[in-house]
Design brief:
eleven-stranded mixed β-sheet, homodimer, 13 helices, elongated, alpha/beta, 430 residues
Chain lengths: 430, 430
């Protein structure tokens, strides 16, 4: 019996798309055997057919007409990225009943519910393992393999670019701008690094992970986000002196409150003790810790970006999708029955590290300490460093305090005539 | 619309079974919401209804008649363990078309293909996430989330009991028998620890992982297995002096040979450099490294045993199984199209550590070195330690050599009149 043919349209032939096409060409038979289907790459939609590519694509497959190319496709693989035109194409694919495989975290974190609804209406499937942490199976983990557990917390390093930059700063003592330039040179940061360094990429992944973990709808706008652009070499040195490192964390946590469970969804650079399992995740690697009520603490680790690892995730989705097209069955549908609300970041208890620049005169420390005390914030440690001639940096860490109260304290510090500036505000995790 | 009812029979109410029943009682509604089904625990089959249990079970659910209990069950959860009567029950369940969820590694590694065939014949599904590494989703990883990749190697610590014992030996300097007694006292080893300490439990998991990773049938008999009972405090101290630790590893590797790909399937205590990611996996934890051709190196880490973590895996399978029963779709079928042969362990290149006891007389080292040389084995390091009065331990490590050649060398050493005994033979990994 000949295996049923599954017709595939690929949208995009950039770094990941090219690798998907290469592997599909080289390993198509093997992947088909796993799916019980004959995988047929029908066409590849690109913006510019003449653009140089890292893989040779049969010119007959290449087209710029997405709508025509997708007609009759069983599976559409979207690897364009960004919101438009990806959103339009993915909607069309789902509306016509094609299975969609995408690695587009921004699209999912912004329009996920709408895409799921379109998929539901036409009984189409939506796969997106590649959207979070490359080949590290976080989406599978949350959507399928841990769905029997109650997830309490997801804590991860999910952006390789920022991890590479922070790592460079830590190992070379470089300032942020130098480390960014090095990352760009090494191919780990894009010419416009905004989405990575401002934490938006991590926030999109955080929204996706929170939605899956807590069976609720969490969009990127609901994630409190702070990037790494203000992290300084001084803070990294101070962290090291305290036995800590600075990592950009994505945090999605189930917080049990008197009014029921709430979702904490945040992305920020945090100080972590070097003994923390995420502290040793270096370079462009990703790692995610999942805490299940029954499972305890699990950690997943691997390459979170790059052509081949991301292609691995896409092709795994492809095998599942092709198997379902050929033999029945579906991807899991959206699970948002719990509808837990996202909590106000101001009400999240957190520990803080602050570096406050003051004139080198008597009595300033007492003033600063008084402002903390007046806001009910208890200090854990206080150090003074010479920040500049005739100036001093007061470096404090706080005990756990509500973020809102710390923000109010910072506002009061800024208003004080004895404070020259707030040099850094970093949160402490673990 | 009321969600379809899915009727569940549980076989066994031991450590894991009790925890599954407890969580199913407490969280049944939530799990049902995820599956889109009403989960109904129909009955619980036990050997002795009067036995004390860690969870209260409605006496009306308890029965000793498995055949009657399973009749009409949509899903049978088998948590008895061992081959019989589990094998008989699981066969009956699959023959009648019930979905089977099991954590029984011994059964799967011995009779997996027969079970898959029965499942295929009646279109029943077989789930077994709990069979490998508790809640750490290795089965999902290999069977689903990495199925688009070509797995090159699986390397793992998959037995918590032996990891706990080796850890105790390393941290306290205890000999094996003392550390075993401590593990038994701490509840990490059973009264009859054979299956764990002889490596049989790890070998069953190795067979399951190799089958999934390489789309081939690998049974426990095809896994070369060596347990930890011969590991001595001296070897652990020697390992530490070399910057290494000793861990019981399960290795499943795709070896590319001139005659096509072969499977290496082995379980043995190996010396690992402390910088290796598996070296810091302590206590009863499990960790598995998967190397995909495209994905690169991924690591999964978590609690590999215990009631709650294993129940987490069972319940995740239950949500998937219930969703499929209620709304269509199937678990992945057996994938063994590749049928790669398992290679002869003698032809596997490996590095060795040997401790050879000799009389403290001149010329012995030359004799020993000559025997290695005569067998074409190149030595990397040679040390001499005083093993006992008037005796010396020659400690050597070899460069990579075929296991068969090293075995022949050991036989020759044993025959030499200048050798008092081979105190230890350990392989080196990484």
């Amino acid at each position: 019996m000949k295996a049923p043919v599954v017709r595939i349209t690929a949208l995009g032939a950039g770094t990941v798309g090219s690798e998907v096409i290469r592997l599909l060409t080289e390993r198509g038979e093997e992947l088909g055997a796993r799916a019980g289907a004959t995988l047929e790459l029908k066409n590849v939609v690109v913006r510019n057919p003449q653009a140089p590519r890292s893989v040779e694509i049969d010119p007959k497959l290449i087209t710029t007409d997405a709508a025509a190319a997708m007609a009759g496709a069983d599976i559409v693989i979207e690897l364009i990225g960004g919101i438009e035109p990806a959103f339009t194409y993915v909607k069309q694919a789902l509306q016509q009943g094609s299975t969609v495989i995408t690695g587009n975290k921004a699209l999912l974190a912004t329009h996920g519910p709408e895409l799921y609804e379109l998929a539901e209406a036409s009984e189409a499937d939506l796969y997106y393992e590649a959207a979070v942490a490359g080949a590290v199976p976080i989406v599978y983990g949350l959507r399928e393999s841990l769905t029997g557990d109650r997830i309490m917390k997801v804590l991860g390093i999910v952006n390789g670019t920022t991890n590479f930059i922070l790592d460079q700063m830590a190992s070379t003592g470089a300032e942020y701008s130098q480390a960014l330039a090095q990352a760009q040179e090494a191919g780990f940061a894009e010419a416009d690094p905004t989405a990575d360094v401002e934490g938006l990429d991590a926030a999109a992944k955080c929204a996706i992970m929170a939605s899956l973990a807590f069976h609720s709808r969490v969009s990127i706008e609901q994630v409190e986000v702070e990037g790494i652009t203000k992290v300084s070499a001084t803070d990294i040195a101070n962290a090291r002196a305290r036995g800590q490192v600075i990592k950009l964390l994505a945090i999605a946590e189930r917080v049990c409150t008197g009014e029921g469970d709430r979702i904490r969804a945040q992305v920020y650079p945090a100080m972590l003790p070097t003994s923390h399992p995420l502290a040793s995740v270096n370079g462009a690697y990703n790692a995610v810790i999942l805490e299940g009520e029954a499972a305890g603490r699990l950690m997943f680790y691997g390459q979170g970006a790059g052509g081949a690892p991301t292609a691995s995730a896409v092709l795994s989705d492809l095998v599942a999708a092709a198997s379902h097209r050929a033999h029945g069955g579906h991807a899991p549908r959206e699970s948002c029955y719990a509808q837990l609300p996202v909590m106000d970041p101001n009400s999240i208890p957190t520990r803080y590290y602050l570096r406050i620049r003051v004139p080198d005169t008597a009595g300033v420390l007492a003033t600063v300490a008084g402002i903390f005390s007046a806001h009910g914030i208890s200090l854990e440690t206080v150090h003074q460093d010479h920040g500049a001639p005739s100036q001093v940096d007061i470096v404090v860490t706080t005990h756990e305090a509500l973020q809102g109260e710390v923000q109010a304290t910072i506002a009061a510090l800024r208003e004080s005539e004895q404070v020259l500036g707030i040099e850094s505000v970093l949160r402490i995790e673990g």
